[in-house]
Amino acid sequence: MSLIIGLTGGIASGKSTVSTYLKQKGIPIVDADKIAREVVEPDEDAYKKIVETFGEEVVTSDETLHRKRLGEIVFNDPLAREKLNKIVHPAVRQRMVEEKNRWLNEGYQTVVLDIPLLFESDLFHLVDKVLLVYVDEETQLSRLMARDQSTKEAALKRIQAQMPLKEKVERADAIISNNDVLEKTYEQIEQLISDWKICAPSP
Ligand SMILES: CC(C)(COP(=O)(O)OP(=O)(O)OC[C@H]1O[C@@H](n2cnc3c(N)ncnc32)[C@H](O)[C@@H]1O)[C@@H](O)C(=O)NCCC(=O)NCCS
Ligand SMILES: Nc1ncnc2c1ncn2[C@@H]1O[C@H](COP(=O)(O)OP(=O)(O)OP(=O)(O)O)[C@@H](O)[C@H]1O
């Protein structure tokens, strides 16, 4: 029996921290953020649509996407964000499913789909269980500002582009609280591996 886990949370809640730990245990991770970068490389359809929609100002001198500039546009304008999501999300979903199926075909029984917008994009049908990484609002804001070297205003805009973490809590199958030191987070992951009988070893 396979187990597909949807790993989610808010921005800077600690999804990568959890997925990195699980990866070290030999569990395959399908990373939506990574795929979202791949599908907007210059030779991809999504790239062309983004440039048509947002103009040359979102392209750098080496023809790659100017992520900072595009981020400034879409995190300040819900309609622009909706347009970008409509271009990028279908391609991301398709590649996530392909990647997950490849791991299953190789004989892995547990695959983790790391999807920041699992709730917002209603992607429950892709997973068997939802694992939420939780932090309180203050911690989320300070970690986001520190990691991205961003202002409070910019960080809040990004947080507010997502469903509040407190609402996500109610719909998750399990929650990892990442407010404390990393050691405490790792302990909770170990407990979850045991509770959900997660099969770590490669086939
Ligand atoms: C706007 C973009 C260019 C900004 O790039 P940047 O390098 O600054 O951020 P990065 O991609 O690393 O995303 C960081 C985090 O922002 C949040 N985020 C990204 N896109 C969105 C979005 N459309 N809505 C809400 N939150 C988002 C996620 O929590 C993500 O983990 C980029 O985020 C993007 O292309 N977003 C659209 C695709 C998308 O929704 N990706 C998220 C998962 S599929
Ligand atoms: N328990 C912790 N204690 C201190 N710092 C932490 C802890 N967990 C994560 N961090 C830091 O907080 C930041 C956000 O963590 P991480 O990148 O894992 O979040 P994320 O949910 O994957 O973010 P994103 O949504 O942007 O992809 C990082 O700089 C990370 O090093």
From TrEMBL:
Keyword check for Cytoplasm:
yes
Q: Where is the signal peptide?
A: none
Binding sites annotated in the UniProt record for ATP = A12, S13, G14, K15, S16, T17
- GO CC term (a single one): cytoplasm
GO BP annotations of the record are: coenzyme A biosynthetic process
> Care to name a GO molecular-function term for this sequence?
ATP binding
Identify the InterPro entries for this entry. Depp_CoAkinase, P-loop_NTPase
A Pfam family reported for this protein in Swiss-Prot or TrEMBL: CoaE
Q: What is the top-level taxon of the source organism?
A: Bacteria
Keyword Transport listed? The answer is no
Which reactions fall under this protein's catalytic activity?
A: 3'-dephospho-CoA + ATP = ADP + CoA + H(+)
PROSITE patterns assigned = DPCK
The listed locations are: Cytoplasm
Pathway participation: Cofactor biosynthesis; coenzyme A biosynthesis; CoA from (R)-pantothenate: step 5/5
Listed A to Z, the keywords are:
ATP-binding, Coenzyme A biosynthesis, Cytoplasm, Kinase, Nucleotide-binding, Transferase
Which EC numbers characterise this protein's activity in its record? 2.7.1.24
Give the record's family classification: Belongs to the CoaE family.
Functionally, this protein is described as follows: Catalyzes the phosphorylation of the 3'-hydroxyl group of dephosphocoenzyme A to form coenzyme A.
The protein here is known as Dephospho-CoA kinase
Task: State the organism of origin.
Answer: Alkalihalobacillus alcalophilus ATCC 27647 = CGMCC 1.3604
Taxonomy of the source species: Bacteria, Bacillati, Bacillota, Bacilli, Bacillales
